[in-house]
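Repro:
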Amino acid sequence: MLISPEMLERAGIKVEGKWDEWLPAVRIDSRLIEKGDLFWALKGENVDGNDFVPRAFESGAQIAAVSEDWATQNAGNLPEKTVLFTMPDTLVGMQRLAMEVRRSIGASTIALTGSNGKSMTKELLAASLSAIGVTTATRGNLNNHLGLPLTILNATGDEAFLVLEMGANHVGEIDLLCQIAHPEIGLITNIGDAHVGEFGGFEALQKAKGELFESIKDDGLAIVNLDDDRVVELATNVKRKSGYTLGLRHIPSDWTNPIYFGEIISQDEWSRVTMNIEGEQVKLQLVGAHWARAALAAVAVAMESGGDADAVVPALATVEALPGRGNIIELGEGVQLLNDSYNANVASIEAALLTLSRREGKKIAVIGDVMELGEFEEDEHRRIGRIPEMEQMDHLVFVGERMSWAAEETSFLGHPSVRSFIEADMVEIAEYVNTLLEPGAGVLVKGSRKVGLERVVDAIRKMR
């Protein structure tokens, strides 16, 4: 993508060396550098990316973005014909340049946030919008103050649509991301308990997510989940908005804006839904009926962006689950494992248990600690133990110190098979789960990323 010297100047970036105004692929990990890339050196708590600039050039980098102080001391030691972007602070410089690039490419920018399901909703959005125009979306979980500008800088410049996922665990973070991205369309999937401890309570959490709607309230478009009262409340001051609903709640009496409707027609044994959206039928590959609302949100965004239902709805059928976010693993003899080990909060655990409860055969749930709940962690983990679908599980396996509270609750309620592992090795947990398996059984593995339950999944697979 071509960028002008004026864009660099406005971002506070100077160029040292001969540069052709072409912005190559930008990477922040020197180990991933390929020939011709731009290595952007960022300083972290424990590592200074500037220290890896020589390695990046050895690996074929064409340009390195470095701090002015580092360049003053080290530029003379670099190979000839190297090009440096220098700036006082490389993080600020990257964010400012991303802001300039975002303005220059002219793509319609859609930003999404929420407590649950952001990444898979992003994939559904990208699929539906790709049916009507060139689309670039956030890759993986690059949804923070580093990942979002990186996504923008790696755009091709030919996009009709830019889909940017926004994550946060403190008030003010989404506001910063919106300043960089300046979205025209905003989507808040839902407001739940994710990171509530980091925010310091539900009110602050709701306010933080609401920063997205605040950023577009005057000239942008909000896509509103009418089935979530907190999201509806956040949209109150937005001038332009459209809603979507599966009809699970009453539409607000004062709602006079466009509404998109969806209906679940049927579900298979893993609650993969066939649904009707705006007169078009589609079967989702994603496990769990809760993805029906995310699919509907994606269609609402695409249709508000000029797409037709007959083009954007069928595109949803191409979306598959990201690794660790609802993948079905066949273990032989009809045994299936639902690998949802990538992350968890209370609402997503409820949804996963509901999905498993609808399946035939023995049901085994392996549930790990939920992080970032702060002062609410005991209450929330005890609430997990009281989720009604727990009663339908044949065996409950809780992993982590916090989940011992959930184990106490389920045991108190009389569940016949509860096992709690606090400091056990993941292989030991897998060995125990393996003893519970019988032909046709279904296993759910779900927990926060820090628990590392993917190691339980890997160990079970090796045993089978």
